[in-house]
Amino acid sequence: MTGTTGTTGTALGAPAERREGRQKVTGAARYAAEHTLPGRAHAWPVPAAIARGRVTAVDTSAALALPGVLAVLTPGAAAGLGDPEDGTLAVLRGPEVPHRGWCVALAVADTLETARAAARAVRVDYAPEPHDTALDPGHPDAYEPQEAGGHPGRLEHGDPEAAFAAAEVRVDVTYRIPPLHNHPMEPHAGTAHWDGDRLTVYSSTQGGTTVRSVLAGMFHLPEDHITVVSEHVGGGFGSKGTPRPDVVLAALAARHTGRPVTVAYPRRYLPTTVGHRAATVQRLRLGATPDGRLTALLHEVTTPTSRVREFVEHAAVPSRVMYATPALLSTHRAVPLDIPGPSWMRAPGEAPGMYALESAVDELAHALGTDPVELRVRNEPHEEPGSGKPFSSRHLVECLREGARRFGWAGRDPRPGVRREGPLLLGTGVAAATYPAQTAPSTAAARALPDGTFTVRTNATDIGTGARTVLAQVAADALRVPLDRVRIEVGHSDLPPAPLAGGSMGTASWGWAVHDACAELASRLAAHPGPLPADGIETRADTTGKAGAEGPYAQHAFGAHFAEVAVDTVTGEIRVRRLLGVYAAGRILNARTARSQFTGGMVMGLGMALTEHSTLDAAFGDFPEADLASYHVPVHADVPDIEAHWIEEDDPHLNPMGSKGIGEIGIVGTAAALGNAVHHATGIRFRELPLTPDRIL
Ligand code: MOS
């Protein structure tokens, strides 16, 4: 956590404060719906009330009669647009309704209230068709996908079935996770305005570069006719990783009315509109020798996908990374259903997959009578089991040991159900974490000005992580100047293109380009005699060909989570007493914002374990838990003593900063650590999340 660069005090790794913090807490920071352009109108979507079928008629007369209503867009309004690659953006094309909540009309009015009233006054008639929302692996349309989350859908080494059948100790268990929703603080919103054939959008997105290219394709425009501004973004957790209907509808309505238009999705509409974490059913089979060496690991995932866009929650993939085994099976089975499309949610694949794997490992430890930390250490692989590649760095054992030391794991009584405190049963649990350390090509520009300051520009997005701050640290470090001499510009499509804030690869990707531009600028300055020209000197960097290249190493961050819970035997309520995470994620670039990312992930894992629950109602094909009154995210009172620590990891194979991503690993394994603690407390193995009181009693 100390600074790493000599005399200039740039302190890569220092706990620098967020640059935009004051703007945010004073309300000066503007979000996508807060760009009050002159004449700005508001639009409110009309969600489909059937799960499958066709719109047969739309009666807009009552809506249009309301004073202040400008237009009601109906199916066909988007008929001339280009085909989006992402089918969820193909709204208002035709009468087909692929799932409930699909946008079937859009009311546009002078005020938000009028737009909402108009949307409610629109009458839609449907021809419903039978729909199907049941997650059944035997579904006639179920299939094994070629690809899951960019990985092969199936991976098989050795003879896993035979190895499992022959194993002396066996665990064969199935875990279930319900659909989960992203629910960022700022719901999805877009403000659009046209100036002739030039389009400007203010978009709440994790990646403005993609928003521009998608809009260019759909509206038949050259990219340089489109400006995308994403100055501040109130979270996304994956749901803003790709453009959502809000920005398409805003652009469409603005073109139709000739006015700037904002579409700010009501929170209730998010679950059907912006993706969710798909439900998973995961069967884990572990075979082992009596001394606790894995001889077979089989991880089979069944998960739904929508009929609009294939998305497969790649929950079996972390089993290709974690433990040494001579026989490995990791497969997915996708069931296409008439449901709102699942998509990315913080640590897609790893978060649900490591819940199941790390719970099963705990079950195996219990069956063997082996300490669960020691069992993991004993099965540490020499190379990545799935690929056979060496790890660029892997300090999982160190995370487990350091976590055990800090948590006070030594001497733990392994017996379940024996620690009582009045009506409470107490328990502790552990689970490992992993998340890939990836990068994507990025560009950046750096300019030295005659007054001794620097401006660094890249179209990165700050979704609340502190991207501006850490990029300034990367720049100051490469330039060897104090942090306060560096200005950072992000969140605007006029800036050099950059990839999205997602996959825990934003900082590593943007930072690489920023580093390269600044390192070159530093050497240009060193060779530059005398004063700079009035407009300074600029360098540009493009990491294409370097970042994102398939290399000889398996690159992942690792971690270990420890949890203590109290289970109330009278009310069934579970209270978390302690959560502790230790991570090995390369070099930590900002101790303050990194801690916030780690603990934020852990809190989200706590929600996944204990409170967050959504149901796909088979009758309606929709989620009843559509607001924060019924979909329970953890609040402060639920969050205990929570600690995040890290191990200094020096990995030369990653990027010039030596950093791995940290945005997602905090959620990975947290739910398993809590579930394992609940087993230790109660002696009962609950295999379906969340662990709400009705399940515990
Ligand atoms: Mo994250 S789910 O990759 O935005």
Automatic annotation (TrEMBL):
SMART domains, per database record: Ald_Xan_dh_C (SM01008)
One Pfam match: Ald_Xan_dh_C
Keyword field: Molybdenum, Oxidoreductase
Region (Disordered): 1-28, 129-158
Residue ranges constituting the Aldehyde oxidase/xanthine dehydrogenase a/b hammerhead domain according to the UniProt record: 26-130
Signal peptide: none
Gene3D superfamilies found in the cross-reference section: Aldehyde oxidase/xanthine dehydrogenase, a/b hammerhead, Aldehyde oxidase/xanthine dehydrogenase, molybdopterin binding domain
InterPro entries assigned to the protein according to its UniProt record, in alphabetical order: Ald_Oxase/Xan_DH_a/b, Ald_Oxase/Xan_DH_a/b_sf, Ald_Oxase/xanthine_DH-like, AldOxase/xan_DH_MoCoBD1, AldOxase/xan_DH_MoCoBD2, AldOxase/xan_DH_Mopterin-bd_sf
Low complexity: bias regions: 1-10
Basic and acidic residues biased stretches: 129-142
Name of the protein described by the UniProt record: Xanthine dehydrogenase family protein molybdopterin-binding subunit
Lineage of source species: Bacteria, Bacillati, Actinomycetota, Actinomycetes, Kitasatosporales
